[in-house]
Amino acid sequence: MSPYLASLAGGALIGLSVALMLILHGRIAGVSGLVAGLGTDRGERRWVDAAFVAGLVLGPPVVAGLSGAWPAMRIAASLPVLVVAGLLVGFGTRLGSGCTSGHGVAGLARLSPRSIVAVLTFVAAGILTVALVGLGAR
Amino acid sequence: MAPVRILAALGLGLLFGLGLALSGMLDPARVRGFLDVFGAWDPSLVFVLGGAVTVSSLGYQLVRRLSKPALAESFQIPTNRRVDGKLIGGSALFGIGWGLSGFCPGPAVAALSTGVLPVAVFVAAMLVGMTAHRVFTLRGAEAGIPARDS
């Protein structure tokens, strides 16, 4: 399969998951919100968060089992950079109420003005960061 | 009904994880390639987001015709329409971390199953960042500063 076709098909599965989470549970399938909910939600809602996150973690091994190869992962960042990046992603997604799934997939599908602003902001910040890191490495 | 809802959530998480693995977005190099518009730009993420938003917006059209979700009592869809400093500042911090690492929460959590140390380090730091936000918000509430967002 061409890599772009695989990306489109993978995206469609992600979209189906987000759509069904709304249709079945009435909830936004935003990964940062679901992960944070593991610590803040109570009762059955917390079990739903945990089940979704567990399913998410099972995805790559299932693909590896079916295709015979683990999905490629090339991590260029050093461990200290990953710590800083992780702190920023964790704090930033809570302060901004969402990430690539909640704002990027579910929010854009709903044409939410907040999500459109959030996506434009995090993509612009990401582009600027990659450009500046690239300049520093030169 | 509770076991049905929890099993359904497991299946939906799996579907999301399968999609991420198939899409190539577990690979931080391809995600950073998308953000590298001034270098060797990789448009893959446009296809992922395009496919995902198309399918989920079809689902949302159906949701608008439903009086309640199939397995729950009511919809819990954000109604806040206010664009504020928290939304923009938080999204900017997230974007910087995303650009530095090539990881956002979905792919990072899904990639935990690869058992690779850098992924575990990133996710652990992300959980600390989320907890820090929660602690600051609680302190703010105690000091009488109203928290608008969830």
UniProtKB/TrEMBL annotation, chain A:
The chain crosses the membrane at residues 6-26, 47-69, 75-95, 116-137. The keyword Transcription regulation does not apply. Its main location: membrane. It is a multi-pass membrane protein. GO terms for cellular component: plasma membrane. Keywords: Cell inner membrane, Cell membrane, Membrane, Transmembrane, Transmembrane helix, Transport. It is found in: Cell inner membrane. Pfam families: Sulf_transp. The keyword Chaperone does not apply. Belongs to the TsuA/YedE (TC 9.B.102) family. PANTHER family: INNER MEMBRANE PROTEIN YEDE (PTHR30574), SULPHUR TRANSPORT DOMAIN-CONTAINING PROTEIN (PTHR30574:SF1). This is Membrane protein. It comes from Methylobacterium brachythecii. The lineage of its organism: Bacteria, Pseudomonadati, Pseudomonadota, Alphaproteobacteria, Hyphomicrobiales.
From TrEMBL, chain B:
Keywords: Membrane, Transmembrane, Transmembrane helix. InterPro entries: DUF6691. The chain crosses the membrane at residues 45-63, 83-103, 109-129. It holds the Pfam family DUF6691. This is Membrane protein. The lineage of its organism: Bacteria, Pseudomonadati, Pseudomonadota, Alphaproteobacteria, Hyphomicrobiales.
